[in-house]
Design a protein that fits this description.
By secondary structure, the protein is mainly alpha-helical. It has 13 helices and 2 strands, in the order H-H-H-H-H-E-E-H-H-H-H-H-H-H-H. Helix 2 runs antiparallel to helix 10 and helix 3 runs parallel beside helix 6. The N and C termini lie far apart (about 55 Å). The C terminus is likely disordered.
Length: about 375
């Protein structure tokens, strides 16, 4: 089989090198997110429990992607023969990266939907939400989510297999060359049925649900914003910052910002998941080229893969940026994590001036003692 495109390829080398750097930064940012959300009283809010699970599995996806992107860089630079893959990389792709990456992607999109649904229940039915929106229940829901995603994607472990490529003519060691091949299951009617079931369960239904909750949350943010401005103006003259009325107003303000943050998270996910769905293999073949064989071996297919991988990588990395921009309390605790006790003094001062009580996080770390509040949002 002739090479589908010229190697080395500067464009693909640049793209995957950049994505590799972004993924490494994303792993670090997701690690910060887990530490902050689980070592402060933010962990006492069910929404942050979901965001912790999202950060853990987004970080795991980025770890698997770093290995893939490194291989892409080496292949497109000519260090690795694109027509002569080693058995190790083929085994990794067939039995680790593709199954695990799809499991993690499904977990991510359904966790985003759960976060959006829970937040909508919280703002629409605040009394009932106290019964259902609890960190312990959130942990059970996350556990059920990952178990379902794993069971649903079990067929992915039987879809691909390394194949020895004895048809190569220019390889110096043909017996050690392998290609990424399909199993008999992948060519069966059962796989076709399963594939479209997955399209519905992991792409179509989640996209519709994400779009609906994006609309509902944005609509609520607009309505609540107007109501909050009116109430804050009326309460400013009658309630000081340390009075019960002032504390209630600040609590509502924090909840409003949390809703805005989660709305931004859902909209971001909607944009990336839509792009990922369009540039997935079968949709891209349907939309851009009707010849499956030609597309699969063409340069444009590599471009589609790069866009697909880039969107998944950015989607897994940008949550941290949203939290930092739209969540003042999260940003405070990251400052403590990065800059230590000197920043801790500033955070304590800021926390006290805001009327926050001194409480510890779920794991009671010494560094953040005295920083948080039980109602920190």
């Amino acid at each position: 089989m002739a090479a589908a495109y010229a190697v080395p390829d500067p464009a693909l080398i640049t793209v995957y090198s950049l994505l590799n750097v972004i993924a490494l930064v994303g792993i670090l940012c997701n690690s910060f997110t887990v530490v902050v959300l689980q070592t402060t009283t933010l962990c006492r809010h069910s929404s942050y429990t979901y965001l912790t699970g999202l950060a853990i599995f987004d970080g795991l996806y980025l770890v698997t992607f770093v290995i893939l992107s490194t291989d892409k860089v080496l292949t497109n630079s000519g260090v690795i023969d694109p027509e002569c893959k080693k058995i190790g990389m083929c085994l990794y792709m067939a039995y680790i990266h593709i199954p695990i990456a799809n499991i993690l992607a499904a977990f991510s999109i359904w966790t985003t939907i759960i976060v959006a649904a829970e937040r909508y229940v919280f703002v629409k039915f605040p009394i009932k939400a106290k019964l259902y929106c609890h960190p312990q229940k959130a942990k059970y829901i996350l556990l059920v989510n990952i178990i379902i995603c794993m069971l649903f994607h079990l067929p992915y472990f039987f879809m691909f297999t390394p194949e020895n490529t004895d048809t190569l003519q220019n390889s110096t060691n043909m017996k050690d060359c392998y290609a990424f091949g399909y199993t008999d299951f992948t060519n069966s009617v059962g796989y076709t049925v399963y594939y479209w079931m997955r399209v519905a369960a992991v792409q179509a239904i989640p996209l519709i649900a994400t779009a609906v909750f994006s609309f509902l949350l944005i609509r609520h943010v607009k309505i609540a914003g107007k109501s909050f401005n009116n109430n804050s103006t009326a309460s400013a003259s009658s309630a000081g910052g340390g009075s019960p009325g002032g504390k209630s107003l600040k609590r509502k303000h924090s909840e409003q910002w949390l809703t805005m943050m989660l709305s931004a998270l859902v909209v971001k996910s909607l944009v990336f998941y839509t792009t990922i769905a369009i540039f997935d293999k079968v949709p891209s073949e349907t939309l851009f080229n009707n010849n499956d064989d030609h597309l699969s071996s063409s340069y444009i297919n590599e471009i589609f893969k790069a866009v697909h991988n880039g969107c998944e990588t950015l989607n897994a990395c940008l949550n941290f940026v949203i939290y930092m921009v739209l969540n003042k309390n999260f940003a405070r605790h990251v400052k403590v994590l990065l800059f230590g006790r000197r920043a801790w003094v500033d955070v304590v001062s800021d926390s006290r001036s805001s009327g926050h009580a001194s409480n510890q996080g779920c794991f009671r770390p010494k560094l953040t003692a005295g920083v948080d509040t039980a109602h920190d949002t």
